[in-house]
Design goal:
Largest sheet: none
Helix content: 55-70%
Radius of gyration: 24 Å
Distance between the termini: 58 Å
Number of helices: 14
Length: about 280
């Protein structure tokens, strides 16, 4: 067995074990401990091939067929991942107009690691439909599953969930403090070297929004300063328009009306340039 296969095959065995309803403890015996099985499933190279063969036997798998099993699983996962990414792109572009029956075409085992990606997308769909309770349920379930799959840390799905959970707390529950706390969790879990890097700026401008609502104006300005320093790197027009809008509100609070007007005018220019004038 090639060293590069250990991690992939370990994940596959974990999926099969859980699908068959076995815990680490109840499948372990005098020949293979739960710790060894855990190491095997994580792809630890120190686990002997004999132990892998023994676990395969217990799971009714033919170890000699592992290259075929691995290729089949990889192909299946890649096809499913492409489908899920396609759904995410559609949600980004058409939002609440996304046809819910597209989810019905996805057949996915709850023991599959991609199942949390599926739940995350359903949470996003129901959020865009303003179905707050259902959306929150999916995001919370996604967060629970993320604890079981550390490989997803770089996906930045967790910070996205925290962002949306914060917004649900603000818009549905009317709890700005809780919203700010959840948004902070999103910033704390953000991985700059990961996917969905755009979420950093959305989280920052949302933080400034909550701070302004809580009249923590100095902190709000501090957060906005971070954003304006990086404005040339921000592609999201919503984020940029919100930056100017919040800064204008803060300036009005301080009775700096002329300067506030400049930010309002620049915000309107950005909104017009991006067809957001109805905001």
């Amino acid at each position: 067995m090639k060293p590069s296969d250990y991690v992939a095959f370990g994940k596959y065995l974990k999926k099969i074990r859980r699908k068959q309803g076995h815990s680490l403890e109840n499948i372990a015996d005098e020949n293979i401990s739960s710790a060894t099985i855990s190491n095997l499933e994580r792809g630890t190279l120190g686990v002997s091939e004999e132990k892998i063969q023994y676990l395969c036997q217990k799971l009714n798998l033919d170890f000699s067929q592992y290259p075929i099993l691995l290729n089949e699983e990889t192909d299946k996962q890649n096809k499913l991942l492409r489908k899920l990414k396609g759904i995410e792109r559609l949600l980004n572009y058409i939002g609440s107009e996304f046809p819910i029956n597209r989810f019905d075409s996805i057949s996915i085992d709850p023991e599959d690691s991609l199942y949390l990606y599926f739940l995350y997308l359903k949470g996003r769909y129901y959020y865009k439909k303003n179905m707050w309770v259902k959306s929150r349920e999916y995001f919370l379930e996604t967060q629970q599953l993320l604890k079981q799959y550390p490989d997803y840390e770089k996906s930045n799905i967790s910070p996205y969930c925290y962002k949306e959970l914060g917004r649900i707390s603000y818009f549905y529950e009317g709890d700005t403090e809780k919203a700010l706390y959840l948004n902070k969790q999103g910033l704390d879990t953000f991985r700059p070297d990961g996917e969905r890097a755009f979420i950093k700026y959305t989280l920052l401008v949302t933080e400034a929004f909550y701070l302004e609502k809580l009249n923590r104006n100095g902190e709000a300005n501090h957060t906005l300063n971070q954003l304006f320093e990086q404005e040339t790197q921000i592609d999201n027009s919503d984020v940029r328009v919100n930056m100017y809008e919040i800064r204008a509100f803060l300036l009005v609070k301080d009775q700096h009306f002329k300067e506030a007007r400049k930010y309002v005018e620049r915000g309107v220019e950005l909104a017009e340039a991006n067809n957001q004038i109805d905001r």
